[in-house]
Amino acid sequence: MPEQPPVRAERTRTAALLDTLRSALGEDLLEAVSAADMDEAAIGPSALLRAVEILRSAGFNMLADIGVVDHLPLSPRFEVAYHLQIIDAAAKPVVPARFRLRVFPDDADPVVPSLVSIWPNANWAEREAFDLFGIKFEGHINLKRILMPDDWVGYPLRKDYPLRGTDRGFVAGGRQGSVPPVDLQQ
Amino acid sequence: MSTLDLSRLESSPDLLISQGDDRDSLVISMGPQHPSTHGVLRVMLKLDGETVISSESEIGFLHTGIEKQAENLFWQQTVTVVDRADYLAPLSNSLCYVLAAEKLLGIDGQIPVRAQVLRVIFTELTRIASHLVQLGTHAMDLGAQSIFMYAFEMREQILRIMEFVTGARMHQSWFRIGGLALDVPVGFIDLLDKFIESFPERLSDMRAILEKNVIIMDRLIGVGRISAEDAIAWGLTGPNLRGSGVAYDVRKALPYSGYENYDFDICVHDGGDCYSRFVVRLNEMYQAWRIIKQGRDRFPGGPVVIDDPKIVPPAKTVIQHSMEALIHHFKLVSSGFNVPEGRIYQTVESPRGELGMYVVSAGGNKPWRVRWRPPSFYNLQALGALAPGNLIADLVAIIGSLDPVFGEVDR
Amino acid sequence: MEMSPHQPYITTKLDEFTAWARTSAIWPMTMGLACCAIEMMSIVSPRYDTSRFGAEVFRSSPRQSDLMIVSGRVSNKMAPILRQLYDQMPDPKWVISMGACASSGGIFDNYAVLPGVDRILPVDVYVPGCPPSPDAVIFAIMQLRKQIEAGGKALVLAKNA
Predict the structure, then answer these.
(1) A38, A62, A100 member nearest B235 (Cβ)
(2) Using a CB-CB distance cutoff of 8 angstroms, which residues of chain C are in contact with residue A173?
(3) Which residue among A166, A170, A178 sits closest to C76, beta carbon to beta carbon?
(4) Do B106 and A2 touch (CB under 8 A)?
(5) How confident is the model at residue B389 (pLDDT cuts 50, 70, 90)?
(6) What angle do CA B240, B246, B251 make, to 5 degrees?
(7) pLDDT band at A171, cuts 50/70/90?
(8) Which residue among A158, B82, B133, C120 is least packed, with the fewest CB closer than 10 Å?
(9) Nearest to B64 by CA among C74, A65, C83
(10) Cα B298–B302–B306 angle (5° rounding)?
(11) Measured between alpha carbons, how far is residue B159 from residues B23, B163, B172 in Å?
C-alpha cells in the first residue's frame, strides 16, 4: 500500500460520513471502508436512494462517474460504482472531497434505482451501464442502448462475452458492398 | 442499425418538447458525418426555421471496445491502447492509467524525479497541442479558416518535439508503469528551448487576432450560457466548468506527478458562455507554457525508470552480462507482472476536464477492469440542455466550445 | 500530349486528358472518424499542404467529392453510414483506407471494430500507420494519381513489372 499523505480535511469529513451511513443503513450496508484513495461504502440496491440522500445532505453535489465492474467468478457479480464529489463553487481553489458508493445488485436480474431525477448526468452513464453490462435502472426515462447499435444482442463488457464478439460475419446494414464480406474460418 | 426514427424522437422524454404547435417544425439529423460536429456525433434536431427547439445527441459511432481490449492485455501493454481514447491528448490518458497502476503496485513514491519532470513537461505540451486543435477547429467552425492554419502550424512544432523524443507524432505510448520507456535524446533541450522561446509571441499573436475580435465576441458572448450550479449538476469539468467561474483544476486540487512544485494559476472566467470557455483555453495555454519553462529550468538528471526488475525490464547492457536480468526480461515480456488486488479511482486534468480511471485489479497480470471517466462524455451530455433556443450556427459554436473528443466519449 | 510548334493546338488522347483533369483536382470528403482524422487535417495545414496537388478542398457533402479517405476505426454502428455515404458519391470515386484501423482493424481485434473497411467498400490505396504521418497520406494520394492515370490498380502494377 502506498504511504499515506497527511490526512486532508476533506477525508476527515468523509470519515464521519461512514459512521452516519453505518447507523442509517443498518444491515443494508455491506461494508464501509476507508480505502487508499477515498472512503467508500458497499451497499445493496435497495439502500441506494437513502445513501444518496445522506450524501447529498452532507454536501456531495457532483456525480463524477457511474462505472460497472463484472467480478464474474465471484458473487455478487456486478458492482455499480458511483463516484461522488463535493465541488464548492465559491472556493478558490476547489479541493473536492470524494466518496465511492459500490452497489451490488442481483446476479441474474440486476436492477438498480436510477439517479436521473437527482443528477441529470446520470442519464447517459446509466444507459451505458445498461448497454454494456445489462444493468437495468428503475425509473430511468429513456433506457436504451447508447454505444452499441440498437439491434445488438448481448452485453459486450460482461466477462462471459468473448472479446472478439459472437458475430464476425458482419454485413453493413444488410447491403452487400461491391466487395463481398470475407468469410474468415477461424 | 441506427436509422433516423422519427417516432422515437417524438416520444422520447429526453427532449424538451415545446408546448406550442409543432406542425411547422422540421426534424433533421446533423451528423454523424458533418464538418462541424468535431467527430462522429449525430445530433437529431427539431427545428423551427433555424432555431433549435430540442435536440437529442446520439453517440456510439466510434465505440472501439477499448475497455474490454484493456482487460486482455498485460498491464504494460495496456498503455498502448489507452492512448487512443482521447486522441488529441494521448499522454494525458497514459498518465492517468500509469499513475493508477503505480498506486496499485505501491511504487508511486519511488518514481524518479527526472521521469516526473519529463511527464509533466510532455503532458503540458500535449495540453497545448490539444488546445490548439480545439482553437483551430472552433475558429474554422465560426468561419476563420486562417486560424486553423496558424494553430496547426504551431502544433507542428510540438509534434516535432514529440517525434524527436518518442518516435511518434500522436499516440506516443512513452509513459510506462515505473517511469518512461526511454530517456530523452541529445538535442531535446535545444528543441524545447526553441519552443519555449518562440511560443509566447505566437500565442500573443493569436490572442491579438482573436480575443477582442468583434466577430468572435459577437458569435460567442452569451451563447451556451451555463451557470455554475448547473455545470456542477451536469458533471462538467475542465475549461467548461472553469468558464463558469468554478476554480476546479485537478492539478491543484489533488496534485500528481509533482504538480505541487510548479507555480501556475487556475484559469477562471465568470461568463459561463462560449466566450468564457474560449478565453480560459487561451489562458491555459499560457499557463502550460509557464509549467514547461519551470520544468526545463528544473531539469534534473538521474534515471527515468525505477530500478525494480520485477516491474521494469533491466537495461540491455545489463542483460548481456547477467542471467538473472535476462530471466526477468523474459518473464516481463512473456507474462508481464502481477499487480496486487485493489481498486483505485485516479484522476488527472486532461485538456477536456477531469479524466478519471477506476482501475480494478484482481491480482493478475492483466487489469481486471479499466473504467474510464471520460470528461467529454459528461461535457457532451450537457448539450441537450444548452441547445434549445439557439440557432444552428450557435449550436455549432457550443459543440466546439464543449470540446468533445469522440474517442473518449465512445471508447 | 503534343504541342504543335506554330499553331496554338495541343493534341492528346481523350484518356490522358480526362486522367489529367481527374488527378489534378481530387476533392476529398471529410470522413474523419478518429485519430487519423487529425493527421488528415494536418495534410491541409501549411507544412504538408495538399493544395499543391489540387486536394485542398475538403467537401463535406459526398455529392461533391471524389475521394473518401476513411481515417480512423470503423465501428459496427458507423459502417452502414459509411456505405451510404459511399453510395451517395458520384462516379468516378476512389477510397483511401488510411491507417491501420481502417485497413485491417488495427490494434482493435474485438467485437466493436470492423476488421478493415474493405469489408464494405472497395479500397484503392491502403496506408499503414497508427496514425500514418501526413507524408504517408500525401504519398497515398500520389499513388492514387498514378492509378488514375494508368486506369486502375492492376495496370499500375503491370506498368511497374
Answers:
(1) A62
(2) 79-80, 83-84
(3) A170
(4) yes
(5) confident
(6) 80
(7) low
(8) A158
(9) C74
(10) 120
(11) 52, 6, 10
CB contact under 8 A, C113 and B65: yes
Give the nearest partner residue to C83 out of A149, A163, A173, using CB atoms: A173
For A139-161, how does the pLDDT look when each residue is reduced to its tens digit (9 = 90+)?
A: 888 888 889 888 888 888 998 88
Neighbouring subunits of C (3+ Cβ pairs under 8 A): A, B
Q: Which region among A33-37, B200-204, B306-310 has the lowest average model confidence (pLDDT)? A: A33-37
> C52 lies in a domain?
yes
Q: Is A131 helix (H, G, I), strand (E, B) or coil?
A: helix
| C12 domain-assigned | no
ipTM of the complex: 0.87
Q: What is the overall mean pLDDT for chain A? A: 79
Q: What is the pLDDT of residues B260-273, one digit of tens each?
A: 999 999 999 988 88
Give buried/exposed letters for A2-27 (b at 16+ CB in 10 A, else e).
beeeeeeebbeebeebbeebeeebee
Instruction: Identify the domain containing residue C136 by its residue range.
Output: 24-156
pLDDT tens for each residue of C37-53: 999 888 888 888 888 88
Q: Which residue has the cell 459561463?
A: B272
Q: Report the CATH number that the domain containing residue C101 is assigned in CATH.
A: 3.40.50.12280
Per the CB < 8 Å rule, is B103 touching A37?
A: yes
How many domains does chain C fold into?
1
Give dist(CA B225, CA B406) in Å, integer.
23
B67 close to B370: Cβ distance less than 8 angstroms:
yes
User: In this predicted model, what pLDDT tens digit does every residue of A47-81 receive, in sequence order?
Assistant: 888 888 888 888 888 999 999 999 888 878 899 99
Interface list for C 34-93 with A (CB within 8 A): 76-77, 79-80, 82-84
User: Average pLDDT in the B194-222 region?
Assistant: 90
Residue B234 sits at φ, ψ, to 5 deg, of -80, -5
Q: What's the mean pLDDT in B237-256?
A: 91
Q: Which of these CATH numbers, 2.60.40.10, 1.10.645.10, 3.30.450.190, 1.10.4030.10, describes B66-307+337-382+400-410?
A: 1.10.645.10
Q: Where are the domains of chain B?
A: 66-307+337-382+400-410
Instruction: Give A37 to chain C, closest Cα distance, Å.
Output: 31
Nearest to C78 among B32, B148, B152 (CB): B32
Q: Would an 8 Å CB–CB cutoff place C68 in contact with chain B?
A: no
Task: Say yes or no: domain A9-162 is CATH 3.40.50.1460.
Answer: no
Q: What distances in angstroms separate CA B348 from CA B7, B51, B95, B135, B252, one per listed residue?
A: 41, 37, 8, 22, 10
Find chain C residues with C-beta within 8 A of B64's C-beta.
34, 73, 75, 108, 110, 112-113
Contact criterion met (CB < 8 Å) for B233 and A146: no
CB contact under 8 A, B254 and A92: no
* B13, closest residue in chain A (CA to CA): A141
CA-based nearest residue in chain B for residue A147: B60
Please report which confidence band the pLDDT of residue C1 belongs to, taking 50, 70 and 90 as the band edges: low
3-state secondary structure (DSSP) of residue C124: coil
Give how far B302 is from chain C: nearest CA, Å: 32
pLDDT of residue A170: 56
Band (pLDDT 50/70/90 cuts) for residue A45 is confident
CA distance C140 to chain B (A): 19
pLDDT at position C152 over 60: yes
Note whether C51 contacts B: Cβ–Cβ < 8 A: no
Q: What is the pLDDT of residue C149?
A: 85
Cα–Cα distance measured from residue B399 to residue B383, given in angstroms and rounded to the nearest whole number = 7
Pick the residue of A131, A150, A170 with the most C CBs within 10 A to test the interface with C by mutation.
A170
Among C37, C60, C108, the residue with its CB nearest the CB of B65 is C108
- Angstrom distance (rounded) from CA C6 to CA B410: 65
**Chain A positions in Cβ-Cβ contact with residue C119 (cut-off 8 Å):** 170, 172, 177, 179, 181-182
What is the model's pTM? 0.89
* Cβ B276 vs Cβ B270: under 8 Å: yes
